[in-house]
Amino acid sequence: MGAVVLALLPPFASGYVISLFIVLYANIALATAWAFFSGTTRYISLATAAFFGVGIYALAILHVYVSVPLALLGAAVVGFLVALVVGLSTLRLRGVYFVVFTFGLTELVHQVLNWWEIKINRTVTRYIFTDVSNVSIYETLLAVALITIVGSWYVSHVRLGFALRAIGEDEMVARHTGIDTTRVKVLCFAISASVMALVGAVLALRYPYIDASIAFNNTWSFQVLIAALLGGPARPWGPALGAVPLVLLSEYLAGTFPHHFGIALGLCFVVIVYFLPGGIAPLVERYYHAWVVARAYGRWPPAAASPVTGRFKAGLARLNARWWT
Amino acid sequence: MDRRTFVKGSAAVVGATTLPQRVYAQAAAPDKLRFGYAITMSGPLAPGADSTTVSAYKLWQKRVNDAGGIALKKYNKKVPIDLIAYDDQGKPDELLKLTERLIQQDKVDMVLSPYASHMNLASAPIINKAEYPVIMTTATTNKTYELGPRWPYAFWNIAQPKASSGALSKALAELKKQGKIKGRVATVHPTVEYGVENNEAFLAAAKSDGIEVVFTKSYPFGASDLQPLIREAMATNPDAFLAFSYPPDTFMLTEQMQIVGFNPLVMYVAIGGVFPTYKGKFGNKVNGILVYGPADSSGPGMDEFAKAHQAMFNRPYEAGSVNVYSALQVTQEAIETVGEIDRKKIRDVIANSTFKTVWGDIKYVNQLNANPWAVGQWQNGELVCLFPADKAGAKPLLFPKPAWS
Amino acid sequence: MGWAGQLGLTHLFRAGGPGVILFEVFLGGLLLGGTYGLIALGLNLQYGVARILNLSYGEFFLGGAFAAFFTIMLWKLNPLLSLVISLPISFAINWLIYQYLMLPLIRRAPDQDALDADVVLVTFGLLFVFQGLALVNWSGDLRGYSFLSSPVHLIGATVALNRLLAFLGACALAFALFLVLRYSRFGGALRAITIDPVAASLVGVDVRKFSALAFAAGGALAAASGMLVSTFISFSASSGVEYTLKALIVVIMAGVGRVTGTLAAGLVLGVVESVGGYLLDPALTIAINFALFMLVLLVRPTGLFTRA
Questions:
Q1: Structural domain includes residue B10
Q2: N or C: chain A end with fewer CB closer than 10 Å?
């Protein structure tokens, strides 16, 4: 349905729109992959940029030897393997320690790769010259984004998803109920990472030239985190819901206030957090349910207080409440 | 199915606002010429983008508009310039998207180059595919011979690593021949493309010129303390110390060399050495330091340029912005020669003519500026140009560099 | 070098010899480490006591740096004087941020993780706002000035006076903070809140008020450290994020909430980075920094100095 429309869009849209949507799909795929692990298990990872960069580098190195599709596959595999290693070594970390550790990972890989490239190859840059068109990249990323969302949705309905959520609720309890938390965590971390690497590899097809500082850019980690939190990391389609307004809003602000873009975006964040706690997804869901119920009872549009104002009033009431209680 | 509806809905919204292709009326004279650029306004690479590139763009626009605009002889009138600017935040993906936006959405008449090598190289394919001529004013690479033919609409304005490092190597060889130095050189560079390529180019040139490189090490961009590195270099007793550095390390190296009392007879720093803030921080101690990418303050039109810059921004100009300005002058002259916005013709004019600019004469051979100013030196508190030594306005090398007092 | 002679190490410690260089590198690392600890002190207060992971922390650091820059370059005064303006302003703004932006989030968050998520979003937004304001007002240009950049000779090694000053400033602030936390009622309240806010409120500590003060104090410390560091490192309006992350690394490595631990962790980081870079390859200094940080976490997952 909607996916088919999007897939058929390219011939009718300008290169700019295609570029915009490429960035959009990349963000959707990354955010969904991120939430697949971090949203469910509550292990907030800032390593998105690390795996993204690994994907870029894998493509840059592999595309010289094999065809592009194989190189893309290789990138995903490399991302998976790297994440396996990282995952196995970070098992004991929790909470903010895990977060900052994953952030450090991106920087570490960046620095080591730079040093390695200079020592061994006497250059920090790699050139990528492929004939892949923007349209192919568009379609590929659209496919990746859709598969990621569908995959996330599917997993959330089977035992693995249940295990992930159990870990997120209370890891010790989960372990005691017989879930092999180590295997689940590491496996899902690695799956999420391989998607991130794949997205990086696909995007890399557009850059004629990469070096470690381009590939390992922490902004991706933050952007993806924001998109997922904004959209609501608990649903499979939540991050996409966050990524879309984030990208479109950024684009609109960048075009309208190029010099004040940062300020405008920051203000938007602050406003969104206050009026959309929990992200957009729960809100959308609530509206959807209200709509369904109202339709069933023949009462649409609803005349009573909408979910938003009711919640807002409740929030105001709580502003007089005591600390932590 | 609300997820799909949502995505489909937003796609429809975006499609509706962007699909209608505006028809560009060619019949009457345009009342404005639109020049667009996406540049790094925020993020770690933002310093430099403003003082080197953006200020030149704005100054040029003002001066051209004050004179009435660019003369389009096809319509027999002068047309003023509008600048459209976007912030690429230092991210290549943003740059690609924004460049597309400038070309297809805003339909600018000409695109101006972004800032920094990797950004220029990232957007070059798009700009070339759309057949917009662009003069890249902050791009250096060892691969111009390969990339040039790939991107026929792209021109390289500044001294490439081979030119600047080669000039240094030749100068050192000359000093060695005159017996003024033993020919022992220490080099350092940050682990970024610019540093690595310039270092490699220097190593190659030194080998063929008979200069001995006794020490060469790299440091991460953003390092907080370079004193140990300087000590190591000092311990090898070099006559010359070359740093293919970026602004933060240019500043830090200069300061820490003074702390430890490292006084090589020849000292070179790269990017940032021409910044007025560099001189502002170190005062007269900059005398004798060799730098990358100078401009000749006594060049044609430079007096007015300096005055206009000071009047508009209330600060002195940075030599890099002279290079950017010269590219704009080339663009303007090419447009005026063609008489209208015919980008293919403009490109051909740029490729085949010689231009007189504030940065000296510019002629592109195989899209590469034939002999831009590569190396300069601070002498008596002023920036002078040294190499290419046969270019009009070149001054002799001040040797040795006075010791930090 | 009598003792060196007695140990048969004279050849190492001759002037310019490897021993002297190593010692100087070690000393430089110590000073650098003090800088790291200094940068992290304020964030430690903000996250340790007030439980707010403030991503806009580095912007206040920058505020202190810019104030110092303008004080010396524009008004030709000693940059230390800039603290007279930057400390109170940073304190005030951070206090306001806590009261009006953070408290509502704290009240509605069901647990620390959810709070962290909300706080990350909001302070990330604040980061953009402050950075945007800085860029618009002061442009993205690189700033640097010379202040006390003269050599100091210590036991054969040379260090820069401004770095030494920053190091001493770090030690003084850490010590002052330690005294306050250990021996004053205010400090006692802060420590109680760090350990357990609910328990603290049960024993009558006004958690809200003290957290706000701690958060504000953290912001003031950020400005102070910005001023001190700006004497020897150049910066621009976009440098804020870099310092927030540097601070975060040190705070986490030390273990959240330990003040003296923060300085100690910073010192360790600085020394290992400098000496390691000298012994291995200068290009690896930052890599070593992060590798050490990550190694510490792998061995002690809640930080070097936490009791757990």
A1: no
A2: C
Say whether both B169 and B153 belong to one domain. Answer: no
Report the predicted TM-score, pTM, of the whole model to 2 decimal places.
Answer: 0.85
* ipTM exceeds 0.90: no
Name the residue range of residue C198's domain. Answer: 25-299
Q: How far apart are CA A32 and CA A230, in angstroms?
A: 12
d(C-alpha A156, C-alpha A164), whole Å: 8
Distances (CA, A) of C4 to B232, C33, C80, C113, C194: 22, 26, 39, 55, 47
> B150 and B44 in one domain?
yes
Shortest CB distance from B118 goes to which of A115, A211, A262?
A211
Q: Is B82 a domain residue? A: yes
In chain A, CATH 1.10.3470 covers 2-262
Per-residue pLDDT tens listing for chain C (308 residues): 455 455 555 555 555 567 778 899 999 999 999 999 999 999 999 988 888 889 999 999 999 999 999 999 888 889 899 999 999 999 999 999 999 999 988 888 877 777 877 888 789 889 989 998 998 888 778 888 888 888 998 888 899 999 999 999 999 999 999 899 889 988 888 888 888 888 888 888 888 899 999 999 999 999 999 999 999 998 988 888 889 989 999 998 988 877 888 999 999 999 999 999 999 988 899 899 999 998 998 888 888 887 64
Contact list in A for residue C130 (CB cut-off 8 A) is: 266
Any domain includes B6: no
Q: What is the DSSP track for B309-320?
A: HHHHHSSPPPHH
Q: Which two tokens stand for residue B155?
A: 């021109």
- Two tokens at A70? 């194989």
Size of interface A-C (CB pairs under 8 A): 131
Rounded CA gap, A193 and A195, in Å?
5
Q: B364: which DSSP letter?
A: E
CATH code, domain with B233: 3.40.50.2300
**Domain co-membership, B80 together with B126:** yes
- Architecture in CATH for domain A2-262: Orthogonal Bundle (1.10)
Helix (H, G, I), strand (E, B) or coil at B220: coil
**CATH number of C32's domain:** 1.10.3470
> Which structural domain, as residue segments, surrounds residue B225?
161-292+375-387
Strand-strand pairing, A209-210 and A126-127: antiparallel
Task: Give, as one character, the DSSP assignment of residue B397.
Answer: P
**Inter-residue contact A124 to B220 (CB < 8 Å):** no
CA distance to partner chain A, nearest, from residue C234 (Å) = 20
Asked whether residue B332 falls in the same domain as residue B239, the answer is: no
For B331-364, give one letter per residue: b (16+ CB within 10 A) or e.
Answer: bbbbbbebeebebebbbbbbbeeebebbbbbbeb
Q: Which residue has the tokens 């309006």?
A: C237
Q: Which residues pair with B266 in a beta bridge?
A: B240
Q: Smallest CA–CA separation between A234 and chain B, in Å?
A: 14
Q: Is residue B1 part of a domain?
A: no
Q: What are phi and psi of B34, to 5 degrees?
A: -105, 120
Q: How much is the CA Rg of chain C, to the nearest whole Å?
A: 20
- Asked whether B398 and B288 are in contact (CB, 8 A), the reply is yes
**Per-residue b or e along B214-232, where b marks 16 or more CB atoms closer than 10 Å to that residue's CB:** bbbebbbbbbbbbbbbbbb
CB contact under 8 A, A124 and B4: no
Residues B303 and B266 in one domain: no
Query: Which is it for strands B375-379 and B382-387: parallel, antiparallel or unpaired?
Result: antiparallel
Q: How many domains does chain C have?
A: 1
Question: Do A101 and A93 contact (CB within 8 A), yes or no?
Answer: yes
DSSP-assigned states of every residue in A221-255: HHHHHHHHHHH-TTSTTHHHHHHHHHHHHHHHHHH
Cβ <8 Å between A259 and B87: yes
SS3 B93: helix
Domain count, chain B: 2
Contact call for B8 and A2, based on CB within 8 A: yes
